[in-house]
Amino acid sequence: MTAPLTVPTRPIEGQKPGTSGLRKKTRVFMEPGYLENFVQAIFDAIGGAAGKTFVLGGDGRYFNDRASQTILRMAAANGAARVIVGQGALLSTPAASHLIRLRGTDGGLILSASHNPGGPDEDFGLKFNTPNGGPAPEGVTEAIHAATLGLSAYRTLETPDIDLSALGEVRLGDMTVEVVDPVADYAALMERLFDFGAIRALREGGFSMRFDAMCAITGPYATEILENRLGFPKGTVVHGTPLPDFGGMHPDPNPTWAHELMDLMMGPEAPEFGAASDGDGDRNMIVGRGTYVSPSDSLAVLVANAHLAPGYAAGLKGVARSMPTSAAADRVAQAMGLAAYETPTGWKFFGNLLDAGRATLCGEESFGTGSDHVREKDGLWAVLLWLNILAARGQGVAEILSDHWQRYGRNYYSRHDFEAIETVKADAMMTALRARLADLPGTEHEGRAVASADDFAYTDPVDGSVSTGQGVRIVFEDGARIVLRLSGTGTSGATLRVYLERYVPGPEDLRLDPQEALAPIIRAAHALADIPGYTGRTAPDVIT
Ligand code: G1P
Ligand code: ZN
Whose atoms come closest to the Cα of 94: which ligand? Predict the structure, then answer.
């Protein structure tokens, strides 16, 4: 075999993994040594790779194939015993999380920039997940960052690419590369959690659906599960072939980017049910015929009905939502006597709660929902749980949603994103707002008095770790709420996210347009933070 090479290198600035690993422009990742440095830092930060087993795969975006070969060579040169890689170097994020857990590995490397577009001029990313299957917690990402700063060399092999298209085992130096079917284990897990028979019966009764894979990783998964195993007709899954540039689509399942699906669902030809997922398969959007389900409402409905699926028949241990997610799920949790947790933005904060058995379902307003079956959010899982609930209740999405609001009231909710703001301007705005928080309680805005204002800090109830500066919360006396934070996942400039919420108990006023229902809250947000003054923006780029 070829002896491992030690290639001298210098630290590269800015290799600081954020909430979802390291995300940069693809060309940055392709610069000589860039990917290599970060991979070496991961191995160094976890105490070396010697004798370890890892999972490897990605969402198929541009550079996924070459990056996988680089990582395999480096894993071998660093002494890893085995890497389990999805055929064609493909794995959805939830499937990777499942494999890490199923095979009891030492973690996994996932190649993806999630919902960001792919291609040579778009985005790429690399994330390390720990042996519990979840995104590396802050302690680990900080150790990785620290390792990047002290790097002087990386280890690799000089070998030709290996064939990742054939299932089975091959040797790379002293390491075994095990190429597995990326879908099989995941599909088996879904069959255990959900009543496929009931969903098949629903379909046989004439129920129709469309799943938009947005030319990203969920295509093969959705085709196998929805079409092959559940028997939905061919063509139920659209944009089902993962492409390196996602066919030019922006694989972010929200009404703006999944507009093709939205148009269908709001039009005369709408099937009963529609859903979409993102680049790496962890996000989901749920739409009924003529009815959009906001992610916060989706979480609440799932919490209220999860017991209808076999995997959750014993009930839930608790529910967790990210702070900016609406309180709709809390109302259900309260009614059901379940513990409810409010965590900072980012799936990694759910990991401890899931591991400790304190929460079973988790969700974020950013189209992320999941459970303790893996340690990532899971797009197809959410779709299947919805299908199981629709089958069990024999009702449509619109009926279920309106029953839900009648019972619990409605948390009108919207997120406004202001993208590619100059970082200095966005930072100045947030700094000024933070400085004024103590003065806000008691002041009136659009006829509402501020009850409290703070910068969200979280103490993990399991390990006691503290995360500060997680977003400004302004809560009004009637429970309406404004949250402002800067995105941690953008790759150009700053993205300001403004989260708007207002609770209406019902029974009237449950069918307003959310933007209308939230209009005074939106105006208050613009004025309170002086968004136009600091950023020059008067309207958001994306509304969800
Ligand atoms: C965004 C979402 C957040 C999610 C993350 C990774 O992060 O808002 O909920 O966990 O992507 O998918 P942000 O850009 O807001 O930091
Ligand atoms: Zn994603």
Answer: 2
